[in-house]
Structure formats: structure tokens, C-alpha cells
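Input chain follows. Return C-alpha cells only.
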Amino acid sequence: QVQLVESGGGLVQPGGSLRLSCAASGFSFSNAVMTWYRQAPGKERELVAYINIVGATAYADSVKGRFTISRDNSKNTVYLQMNSLKPEDTAAYYCSTFLLTTYWGQGTQVTVSS
């Protein structure tokens, strides 16, 4: 069965960095588009970053230049490197993939606060 498990969230100060990981199983990871979404309380879910099967990436304007999505097909893992974090980056971050239907991980909380 498809499983996505996020990790790496936590509490950091403004300007700090975190690297989120999403471990995938139950499908052909190398043939899957992977995405990171986030959702803050009271706000709509936002697509943060995307990486396709050949490594092309795209980012939300709000994180462009600060976040980097990458994948390691040998480890079935997608990463989100987050630098220069701002309080407005505080949200639950979710890994997702579309395989006829959309699959979601459980999320990992990122809190940016001084």
C-alpha cells in the first residue's frame, strides 16, 4: 500500500533552516511526481514545491529562492530544504503524490517563532 511519512519539522527561529523528509513506499517512486503542501490554521492549503520524474522543479512565489525540493530515488525519499525561514512559513507540511488518486502523508509541523 502507498505510504508517505514526513519528518524533520520542529521549532526554529526566524532566519533558521530545516530539512523536511518524506519517505515513500508502496509504489514506483522514480515514476512519481512528488509535491510538498502546507496549511496554516485558518488558511487554504498551499502547494509549496513540486518535482517531476526528471527532476524539474517549481515553487510557490512565497518560498522561491528560499526552499529547495529534491529527491533521492535510491532512497525513495523527497526532501524540502527550507532556509531563511519566516514566521509566515509556520504550517503543517505534507508530502503528496498523485497515483490515480492523491495520497497524503500525515504531515510534519513547522513552527517559526522567536
